[in-house]
Write a structure and sequence with these properties.
- It is a single chain.
- This protein has 262 residues and is mostly helical.
- The protein has a domain at 118-253: Butyryl-CoA Dehydrogenase, subunit A, domain 3 (Up-down Bundle).
- It is built from ten helices and five strands.
- The chain has a three-stranded antiparallel sheet, with no helix packed on it. The protein has a two-stranded antiparallel ribbon with strand order 4-5.
- The radius of gyration is 19 Å and the shape is globular.
- The chain starts with a helix and ends in a 9-residue tail after the last helix.
């Protein structure tokens, strides 16, 4: 796909996500040809669509499609997914929101599911977490430019600058890791998901500090993104669990694999 076609696709997807979310967005993405894109151009479609889910704050149960495709099954359904702490959940295609942490999401706890390949799903979630991180950083940056204390914007204060800079470094590092990751490499996808989850958690912490009290209010968008990060980090293994798993793998093998040719 040429750059202009990718740009037009990104505009169409973003416009769709701004207008709808949940089951309506799921149907709208299907009308845009999401399953065809997933089958024909997954290396373009997955980063684009999942990153935009994070940036717009929308949600749709399309993680199911990524995992189903990797398992050699048809998309359009739902299946149990591992969650942090050894539990399992299902992200329903339709139904009432049920997550206590993020009340917008129709996620329910279920008994343990069948083991299927989760590498592609972890990579997709990594892009979603990066997009959500960029959305939070944008909110904090704009607040820092607009909020005036002692006669000048708080963006001029070194402590605020350091928090925003550390946030940007974390996000850029996670995105660079994802760009070097192929979904056929299970270990690399594990590390990429862990890096994206940690970057998003770091972003949430720093952006909350920059925004101060307003970031806790129901009127501000930050808390929606923070709740989303906590759910996405837990899906298919949290950053802490995946880091521990990666460490155990390296110890067992006696060496660390080369993930990128530098």
């Amino acid at each position: 796909m040429d750059p202009e076609a990718q740009r037009m696709l990104a505009v169409a997807v973003r416009t769709t996500m701004i207008a709808a979310s949940g089951a309506k967005l799921d149907a709208a993405l299907a009308d845009l040809g999401w399953l065809d894109m997933l089958a024909e151009i997954p290396d373009i479609a997955i980063p684009l669509v999942f990153r935009l889910l994070g940036e717009t704050g929308a949600h749709a149960p399309i993680l199911n499609d990524v995992v189903l495709r990797a398992a050699g099954r048809a998309g359009g359904g739902a299946l149990p997914l591992p969650f942090a702490g050894g539990s399992w959940v299902v992200w329903e295609r339709a139904g009432e929101p049920a997550s206590a942490l993020d009340p917008e999401l129709p996620i329910h706890r279920v008994p343990a599911g069948d083991p299927v390949p989760f590498a592609a799903g972890r990579r997709a979630l990594g892009w979603w977490l990066v997009g959500t991180g960029r959305a939070m950083l944008s909110l904090a940056r704009q607040h820092a430019l607009d909020r005036v204390q002692f006669g000048r914007p708080i963006a001029s204060f070194q402590a605020v600058r350091h928090r925003l800079a550390e946030t940007l470094v974390a996000i850029e590092g996670a995105e660079a890791t994802l760009r070097q990751t192929d979904e056929s490499d299970e270990f690399a996808c594990l590390l990429a998901k862990a890096a994206a989850g940690q970057a998003a958690l770091t972003t949430a912490r720093h952006c909350q500090q920059v925004l101060g009290g307003i970031g806790f209010t129901a009127e501000h968008r930050l808390h929606h993104h923070v709740k989303r990060v906590l759910i996405l980090d837990g899906l298919l293994g949290s950053a802490r669990e995946l880091t521990r798993e990666a460490g155990a793998t390296v110890v067992a093998n006696g060496s660390a694999p080369r993930l990128a040719n530098l």
